[in-house]
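Hey, resending since the last one bounced:
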Amino acid sequence: MTRSTHLFSGFATLLLLTGCMGYQLGGSRPEGLETVYMSPVVNQTTESAIELQVTHALRQRIQFDGRLKLENSAEISDSIMEVTLTDYSLRAISFRDDLKTTAEQYRLRVTGVATLVDAKTGEILSESKTYGEARFLFESDLTTSKRDALPTAAQELAKFMVDDLIERW
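The structure tokens again:
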């Protein structure tokens, strides 16, 4: 009885492990594409210095994803990521009074386009046009409230952008 139990357990374990064949952590990538250089983010919006938060969020997202390793030089990298911020908008979405004169909650949206280029051939590997947004309550002043909400919008933009660029693999 114990021999047949051990035999059955071993067979069941073998069967379960074959279901995991081919599984790979971190996803796949094209052959020869292991590193990425991130060009400085270009800010074409009217809001100054938002590219700093977006750059930080993109670098964090690439490292979190793990499929590509960040390089600090385009010369030693397999690919180059180019990002341009194209729009920054702020809209009131709820109000404190019925006359809609005093805004209570805002939506901040940052829109950008990105391309992933093969560093050796110059071929565009993938493109993305997306946005990230954050909602926030009006606190003591609008400038501080916007500044506090920007990291959330930048992180969402980075998530969508990186996913768009490398998800097709």
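The beta strands are 35-38, 42-43, 69-71, 79-95, 103-118, 124-137.

Sorry for the duplicate.
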